[in-house]
């Protein structure tokens, strides 16, 4: 597993406002969208491209275009949905799949309640979207879904990660696939309720309210 922390003043600024408990939901949603676009820039550094020849108004030259098969973007519902627009802004030709997963607050295990993924994703670059990498259980389950369908190149884009969760993901992945985790920051630890500290609270609730 490879870890990339986006060390940039704009990332740090937006993350600081997201952490503030006084930031209202509309502002929170807008900042998540902006922050994910910045993280997506880092996450797509190794996106596959093909060389093409084009005609400019002046001459002939070569450039690149996104290669086939198209990348697959997978937000983990519900909080990951708030990251989708920011990601597809940079990858507008990507296909989108969905995984509905939630953490059982008693066992802290990930429970899957919805799955809209292709049966075969062999040869495709896959991008998972989940705001918080806390215990690692949800992300591990999502990665497992993709690996079982043939994926070998998976990038997870998260706002925050806890060291405990990163360790769980690293141990799970091993050398089975090329997995990269792109985050705005790695925080201190998990608390007794498995929330990231200092964190920003429950990302889903702050995006969409408590339902």
UniProtKB/TrEMBL annotation:
<keyword id="KW-0547">Nucleotide-binding</keyword>
<keyword id="KW-0808">Transferase</keyword>
<dbReference type="GO" id="GO:0000287">
    <property type="term" value="F:magnesium ion binding"/>
</dbReference>
<feature type="domain" description="Phosphoribosyltransferase">
    <location>
        <begin position="5"/>
        <end position="209"/>
    </location>
</feature>
<dbReference type="InterPro" id="IPR034332">
    <property type="entry name" value="Upp_B"/>
</dbReference>
<feature type="binding site">
    <location>
        <position position="202"/>
    </location>
    <ligand>
        <name>5-phospho-alpha-D-ribose 1-diphosphate</name>
    </ligand>
</feature>
<keyword id="KW-0328">Glycosyltransferase</keyword>
<keyword id="KW-0342">GTP-binding</keyword>
<comment type="function">
    <text>Catalyzes the conversion of uracil and 5-phospho-alpha-D-ribose 1-diphosphate (PRPP) to UMP and diphosphate.</text>
</comment>
<dbReference type="GO" id="GO:0006223">
    <property type="term" value="P:uracil salvage"/>
</dbReference>
<dbReference type="InterPro" id="IPR050054">
    <property type="entry name" value="UPRTase/APRTase"/>
</dbReference>
<dbReference type="GO" id="GO:0044206">
    <property type="term" value="P:UMP salvage"/>
</dbReference>
<dbReference type="GO" id="GO:0004845">
    <property type="term" value="F:uracil phosphoribosyltransferase activity"/>
</dbReference>
<feature type="binding site">
    <location>
        <position position="196"/>
    </location>
    <ligand>
        <name>uracil</name>
    </ligand>
</feature>
<comment type="pathway">
    <text>Pyrimidine metabolism; UMP biosynthesis via salvage pathway; UMP from uracil: step 1/1.</text>
</comment>
<dbReference type="InterPro" id="IPR005765">
    <property type="entry name" value="UPRT"/>
</dbReference>
<feature type="binding site">
    <location>
        <position position="78"/>
    </location>
    <ligand>
        <name>5-phospho-alpha-D-ribose 1-diphosphate</name>
    </ligand>
</feature>
<keyword id="KW-0460">Magnesium</keyword>
<dbReference type="GO" id="GO:0005525">
    <property type="term" value="F:GTP binding"/>
</dbReference>
<feature type="binding site">
    <location>
        <begin position="130"/>
        <end position="138"/>
    </location>
    <ligand>
        <name>5-phospho-alpha-D-ribose 1-diphosphate</name>
    </ligand>
</feature>
<comment type="similarity">
    <text>Belongs to the UPRTase family.</text>
</comment>
<protein>
    <recommendedName>
        <fullName>Uracil phosphoribosyltransferase</fullName>
        <ecNumber>2.4.2.9</ecNumber>
    </recommendedName>
</protein>
<dbReference type="InterPro" id="IPR029057">
    <property type="entry name" value="PRTase-like"/>
</dbReference>
<feature type="binding site">
    <location>
        <position position="103"/>
    </location>
    <ligand>
        <name>5-phospho-alpha-D-ribose 1-diphosphate</name>
    </ligand>
</feature>
<feature type="binding site">
    <location>
        <begin position="201"/>
        <end position="203"/>
    </location>
    <ligand>
        <name>uracil</name>
    </ligand>
</feature>
<keyword id="KW-0021">Allosteric enzyme</keyword>
<dbReference type="InterPro" id="IPR000836">
    <property type="entry name" value="PRTase_dom"/>
</dbReference>
<dbReference type="GO" id="GO:0005737">
    <property type="term" value="C:cytoplasm"/>
</dbReference>
<dbReference type="Pfam" id="PF14681">
    <property type="entry name" value="UPRTase"/>
</dbReference>
